[in-house]
Amino acid sequence: MDTTKIIDKITELSIAYGTKILGAIAVLIIGSWIVKLISKGFNKMLDKRNVDESLRPFLKSLIGTMLKILLVITVLTMLGVEMTSFIALLGAAGLAVGMALSGTLQNFAGGVMILIFKPFRVGDFIAAQGYEGTVTEIQVFNTIILTLDHRKVIIPNGGLSNSVMTNFTHNPVRRVDWTVGIGYGDDVDKAREVILNLVKSDPNVLTEPEDVFVEVEELGDSSVNFTVRAWAKNENYWDVYFRLNKEVYRNFAKEGLNIPFPQMDVHVHNSN
């Protein structure tokens, strides 16, 4: 074989592939620098948005890994490696894993949404999935609440993020509602005044965002019912609620007002 031809062939191949290799190396170096730059920018964005600490490491790792995989695929493509089959195989594997872990992935996605948008926080009192309690921990897959009778309830985040949830303590104040009944024949104006004074005498009742509301709501079967509304701070809600019930029972009799209760009149007829 002609040595000159061999040398020329080697030179030709070296120039052709050397250019590709040098280009791939340059892309790899510059791409790695860009990946680091994007990762730092992403970390700063997480800090500005106050994303939960338990979610940050995963998001940082996920973004970094995805960018690195994209960079490697780009470099291999520049070197002439056929990536179509590899990408198809990777997509099929991802689909299979996703179908196998559909429930787990749903809970994970729900946890990410909860930790990012924060519909509730640790310490909030919520009602969801048939349970009521204080949130003690928000994990990526589950949320843990402590019920009033100290039961630990673990709720999957998938259902929690896709269904109705009530956050009782999201706002600093809550409205307290009562229904207070008096007997027919009692003085309605006097009853209203007594209830109003009892509510306003509670130091935990607020005048903002609205003052105390007391008005006749319904003429019931055996009672005239008042709707009573007042505002209190979250931490004082139940104290205000129970106090009025107790004070109404204590003071209505003193004021000549009756607390009605269901009664049945039985009439006996002598057939003789």
Looking at this protein, list some descriptive labels.
272 residues; Helix Hairpins; SH3 type barrels; alpha+beta; four-stranded antiparallel beta sheet; five-stranded antiparallel beta sheet
Q: How would you portray this structure in words?
A:
The chain has 272 residues and is of the alpha+beta class. It has three domains: 3-100, Helix Hairpins, CATH 1.10.287.1260; 119-167, SH3 type barrels, CATH 2.30.30; 173-252, 2-Layer Sandwich (Alpha-Beta Plaits), CATH 3.30.70. The chain is 50% helix and 20% strand. It has seven helices and nine strands. A five-stranded antiparallel sheet has the order 4-3-2-1-5. Strands 6, 7, 8 and 9 form a four-stranded antiparallel sheet that branches. Strand 2 and strand 3 form a beta hairpin. The mean pLDDT is 82.
Short description:
With 272 residues, this protein is an alpha+beta fold.
What is the topological layout?
Elements: H1 3-48, H2 56-78, H3 84-100, H4 102-117, E1 125-128, E2 131-138, E3 142-146, E4 152-156, H5 157-162, E5 165-167, E6 173-182, H6 188-200, E7 205-206, E8 213-219, E9 224-233, H7 237-252
Antiparallel strand pairs: 1-2, 1-5, 2-3, 3-4, 6-9, 7-9, 8-9
Helix pairs in contact: 1-2, 6-7
Shape field: elongated
Top CATH class of the largest domain = Mainly Alpha
Mean pLDDT across all amino acids: 82
The low-confidence runs, each spanning 5 or more residues with pLDDT under 50, are none
Measured on Cα atoms, how large is the radius of gyration? Answer: 35 Å
Please give the number of β-strands.
Answer: 9
CATH architectural arrangement of the largest domain: Orthogonal Bundle
Indicate how many domains the architecture comprises. Answer: 3
Secondary structure class reads alpha+beta
Largest sheet: spatial strand order: 4-3-2-1-5
What percent strand? Answer: 15-25%
> Helical amount among residues, as a percent range?
40-55%
Helix count, per DSSP?
Answer: 7
What distance separates the N and C termini? 140 Å
Biggest β-sheet description:
5 strands, antiparallel
In the CATH hierarchy, the third-tier topology of the largest domain is known as Helix Hairpins
